[in-house]
Design brief:
The chain is α/β, with parallel strands linked by helices and 177 residues long. 56% of the residues lie in helices and 11% in strands. It has 9 helices and 5 strands. Strands 2-3-1-4-5 form a 5-stranded parallel β-sheet, with helices on both faces. The chain starts with 7 loop residues before the first strand and ends with a helix. The relative contact order is 0.21.
C-alpha cells in the first residue's frame, strides 16, 4: 500500500451505538460513513439468516470483506461487534484511528432485548451479551486509541466528543501547521 486511508474506525460491543454515533460523526465531519453490518445485509441479506443458513464462520468471512472495503473507502467506519476477532482485521486497524464505544450492561439490555442479533437469541440475552463483551473486551481495549461511553446523557454529547477527538488527532492538520 502506498498510503493509508483516513478512516476513523468505531469498535465496541453490540448495542453500544456504533451505527448511530458513526452516522452523526460522519455528517458532522462531512465524511462518508460505512457500516460493515449494513454492507453485509445489503449484499447478502439479513445477518440472522446468514447465521442460520451458512453459520457464523461464513458470516465472518463476509464481514471481513466488508471491513476491507470500508477501510479502503475511508471516512467513518463502524465495525460489527465481533469483527475485531479476525486477526487480519486487527492488523489492518493498526493503520487507522480507532475509537471504542462502550456501554454499561444495565443500559444495553433495553437496547438489545428484542433484537434479532444471532448471538443474543434464546433466554437471558443480557447475560449472553455480558459474556460476549467480557470475552472481547481485552481485544477492544488493545485496539482502541480512545474510549467513549454511550451509557448516559444525550447521544449528541458522545458525537461531539468523538468529533473533537477526530479533529485533534487528524494527521492532515499537522501538515497545515
Amino acid at each position: 500500500m502506498t498510503s493509508h486511508s483516513d478512516a476513523v474506525v468505531l469498535i465496541g460491543p453490540m448495542g453500544a451505538g456504533k451505527t448511530s454515533v458513526g452516522r452523526r460523526v460522519a455528517k458532522a465531519l462531512g465524511r462518508p460513513f460505512y457500516d460493515t453490518d449494513i454492507a453485509v445485509k445489503r449484499e447478502h441479506g439479513p445477518i440472522e439468516d446468514l447465521f442460520t443458513t451458512h453459520g457464523e464462520e461464513h458470516f465472518r468471512a463476509l464481514e471481513r470483506a466488508a471491513v476491507r472495503e470500508g477501510l479502503a473507502q475511508g471516512g467513518i467506519v463502524s465495525l460489527g461487534g465481533g469483527a475485531v476477532l479476525d486477526a487480519s482485521t486487527r492488523a489492518d486497524l493498526a493503520d487507522h484511528r480507532v475509537a471504542l464505544l462502550t456501554v454499561e450492561p444495565r443500559v444495553v439490555i433495553a437496547r438489545v432485548k428484542d433484537s434479532k442479533r444471532p448471538l443474543l437469541q434464546g433466554e437471558n440475552a443480557g447475560s449472553r451479551w455480558n459474556e460476549i463483551y467480557q470475552a472481547r473486551k481485552p481485544v477492544y481495549d488493545e485496539l482502541a486509541d480512545a474510549t467513549f461511553d454511550t451509557s448516559s446523557g444525550p447521544l449528541q454529547g458522545v458525537v461531539d466528543a468523538v468529533v473533537a477527538w477526530v479533529l485533534s488527532t487528524d494527521p492532515s492538520q499537522e501538515d497545515n501547521a
